[in-house]
Amino acid sequence: MLELPLALYADLDSGLMAARTRMIGAAVVLLGLGAGLGAGIAFVFGRSAEAGLAAGVIVSAALVVTYVLLMISLIAGSGLMALSRARIKVENDARGFPRRSRIVAASWVVAAFVGIASGFAAATLATMWVQERPYQGAVQQTSGTVLSWDDGHRYRVFQLQYEADGTVRIGEASVDELDLTVYSEVGDTVALEYPVEHPDRIRGAGRAAEGRDTNRAFAWISGIGAGVALACAATAVVVDRRRPLAARP
Question: Which residues cross the membrane (predicted)?
């Protein structure tokens, strides 16, 4: 489990095109296997094959990302351990005290893994905060009617007619912000919400509450992850320092 990701990293770090091709090919094969397995499981249980395929791809992609993160964490952990030992003047005692060295190494790897994951969570939290900033403040709900749509953007953009502050308005929102689909038609209605101070900013009703809950969850994940990473790093340093006197240089 530990040697394979290190070997993959060494292969990729060689900079050869063949190494990159092998890495990309392995990821594609894993995604394909996940898609086929998901579709097969869905077929066996009488579910939609498309949904099973999508679920299989998502699970495979999560495994690929996790394995890459493990690979990076092993390298980062070994680097942090070497840096820590150089600062506290600890020599490599893997032969004399292999169990102690494994605990220290594992603690640094876990610290790196959780720290990197917490960094991603914090970056996601910051991105979502920026996205939610235009919708901060009191929110009012209403309903809108589809007038038309435009597919000239990344996502389909719907033109909606709605009422805000006693005034009939026309606004736009993309399909990813609404409880609509690409199969929605002119005349369909949808629940909307808008900031009281900016009634021109519309999106699907309930998104403000969902955004607050998601931000709170990512904040907890980021904070707990940072605490766990610091605890693991501190454990590694303490265990390295509290060696038997015979092992001290």
Answer: 24-45, 51-83, 103-130, 217-239
Tokens 């996205």 correspond to 131
Separation between Cα atoms, residue 66 and residue 74, nearest integer Å: 12
Radius of gyration over alpha carbons of the chain, in Å? Answer: 26
Element (H, E) at 146: strand 139-150
Count CB atoms within 10 A of the CB of residue 179. Answer: 14
Q: How far is Cα 208 from Cα 201, in angstroms, rounded to an integer?
A: 12
- Condensed to tens digits (0 to 9), the pLDDT of residues 128-185 reads 888 888 888 888 899 999 999 988 888 889 999 999 888 899 999 988 888 888 888 8
Q: Could you give the CA distance from residue 39 to residue 46 in angstroms, rounded to a whole number?
A: 10
d(CA 127, CA 119): 12
Contact 40, 46 (CB under 8 A): no
Q: Distance (Å, rounded) from C-alpha 107 to C-alpha 29?
A: 32
3-class DSSP state for residue 195?
Answer: strand
Q: Which of 77, 58, 74, 59 is nearest to 7 (CA)?
A: 74
Write out pLDDT tens, residues 56-105: 888 888 888 888 888 888 888 878 887 877 776 655 554 445 677 778 88
Q: Helix crossing, 3-13 with 49-87: angle to 10°?
A: 90
Q: Within a 10 A sphere around the Cβ of 121, how many other Cβ atoms? A: 20
Q: Tell me which amino acid residue 100 is.
A: R
Sign of CA pseudo-dihedral 28, 33, 34, 36: positive
